[in-house]
């Protein structure tokens, strides 16, 4: 390699600030130095004064002050001492559906996939922390790679039951990567990276505490029904069919009223509670067939006055008594289905 060399012409009794762009040059530290060091040689050449006499005193001197700064390396090669790189904390929210607050997961799997382009020995230490006080530490050596072909390391932890009990609403991931071992030689470039993602999945094997779900509220327009029509209603029946494809029993209660804001607290008509057994569970622990339940509930003339409202709001609450500490398995195709309609007896004509 040809060393960098440049010349500065300095007028008498003057100073000069020279800035030189080092882009594209290689730096080779002096071998054996504890800190990166480069050799700098300065040669001063005097052209002379010709036939003119000049005065020189003992205080005259040449000073050269060289500073190498603002260095950003495109690549660095050599033997790297262990160097720690902090991983900025990332906090992710865990969306817990309404009514699942009393659920706990009995099995869950964490899969962390890390891509690494640094062709040096390096490892990663990851710290997971839930807002419920849970914590989990993971340490793993990473597969080295290149920018063209990153090394992929997959870390699987198949028992997260303690970390997810109770299920946190937020999980923060932090940690550090350590690059180099003080022995191996390699190259690090500005294009290198270490990145990854953490995924937590569960087959939804659960112990379920006593749980209650409020459904969305449906509404019907009753403007076509006037007070005289309602007065003709003698009585009626609510016909309800439940189909349960969940591995737990359930209880349904229907609420009817003219005010959506107070429907569940102050309904005008309450139908139920109606019970339905759990679905039929096979040897695998999964539901293989649904169980149905039919009910016919009598409605009085007074209860049918709910049809005097301009709008009829209908909501339902499904309650689960819990599994009493036993584990059940739920998959995405499990369900509970509710079908309901009302029949009425009414007076016809003037009599």
**Helical proportion?**
under 10%
Distance between the termini: 115 Å
Mean pLDDT comes to 84
- Calculate Rg over CA atoms: 39 Å
Shape: elongated
Stretches with pLDDT under 50, minimum 5 residues: none
Which strand-content bin applies to the residues? Answer: 35-45%
**Order of secondary-structure elements:** EEEEEEEEEEEEEHEEEEEEEEE
Number of distinct helices: 1
What profile does the largest beta sheet have?
A: 5 strands, antiparallel
Name the structural class: mainly beta
Number of strands: 22
Description of the structure:
The chain has 351 residues and is mainly beta. The chain has one helix at residues 227-231; strands at 75-79, 83-93, 103-105, 109-116, 122-130, 135-141, 151-157, 170-179, 185-189, 194-201, 205-208, 211-214, 218-221, 233-244, 250-257, 269-276, 280-281, 287-289, 291-299, 311-320, 327-329, 336-346. Strands 12, 13, 15, 16 and 20 form a five-stranded antiparallel beta sheet that branches. It is elongated.
SSE layout and pairing:
Layout: E1 75-79, E2 83-93, E3 103-105, E4 109-116, E5 122-130, E6 135-141, E7 151-157, E8 170-179, E9 185-189, E10 194-201, E11 205-208, E12 211-214, E13 218-221, H1 227-231, E14 233-244, E15 250-257, E16 269-276, E17 280-281, E18 287-289, E19 291-299, E20 311-320, E21 327-329, E22 336-346
Antiparallel strand pairs: 1-9, 2-8, 3-11, 4-7, 4-10, 5-6, 5-8, 11-21, 12-20, 13-20, 14-19, 14-22, 15-16, 15-20, 17-18
């Amino acid at each position: 390699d040809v060393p960098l060399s440049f010349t500065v012409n300095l007028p008498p009794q003057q100073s000069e600030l020279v800035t030189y762009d080092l882009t594209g040059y290689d730096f080779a530290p002096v071998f054996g130095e504890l800190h990166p060091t480069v050799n700098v040689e300065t040669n001063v050449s005097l052209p002379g004064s010709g036939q003119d006499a000049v005065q020189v005193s003992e205080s005259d001197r040449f000073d050269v002050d060289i500073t190498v700064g603002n260095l950003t390396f495109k690549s660095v090669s050599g033997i790297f001492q262990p160097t720690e790189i902090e991983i900025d904390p990332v906090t992710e929210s865990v969306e817990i559906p309404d009514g699942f607050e009393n659920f706990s997961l009995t099995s869950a799997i964490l899969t962390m996939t890390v891509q690494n382009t640094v062709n040096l020995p390096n490892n990663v230490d990851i710290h997971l922390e839930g807002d419920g006080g849970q914590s989990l530490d993971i340490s793993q050596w990473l597969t080295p790679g290149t920018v063209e072909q990153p090394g992929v390391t997959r870390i699987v932890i198949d028992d997260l039951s303690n970390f997810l009990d109770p299920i946190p609403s937020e999980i923060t991931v932090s940690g550090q990567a350590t690059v180099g071992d003080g022995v191996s030689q390699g190259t690090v470039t500005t294009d290198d990276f270490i990145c990854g993602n953490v995924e937590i999945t569960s087959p939804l094997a659960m112990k379920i505490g006593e749980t209650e779900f409020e459904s969305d509220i449906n509404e019907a327009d009753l403007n076509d029904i006037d007070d005289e029509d309602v007065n003709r209603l003698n009585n009626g029946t609510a016909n309800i069919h439940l189909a349960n494809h969940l591995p737990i029993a359930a209880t349904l209660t229907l609420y009817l009223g003219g005010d959506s804001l107070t429907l569940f607290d102050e309904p005008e008509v309450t139908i139920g509670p109606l019970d339905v057994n759990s679905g039929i569970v096979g040897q695998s622990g999964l539901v293989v067939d649904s169980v149905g339940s039919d009910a016919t509930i009598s409605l009085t003339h007074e209860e049918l006055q709910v049809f005097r409202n301009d709008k009829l709001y209908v909501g339902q609450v499904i309650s689960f008594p819990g599994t009493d500490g036993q584990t059940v398995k739920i998959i995405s195709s499990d369900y509970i289905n509710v079908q309901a309609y009302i029949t009425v007896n009414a007076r016809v004509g003037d009599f």
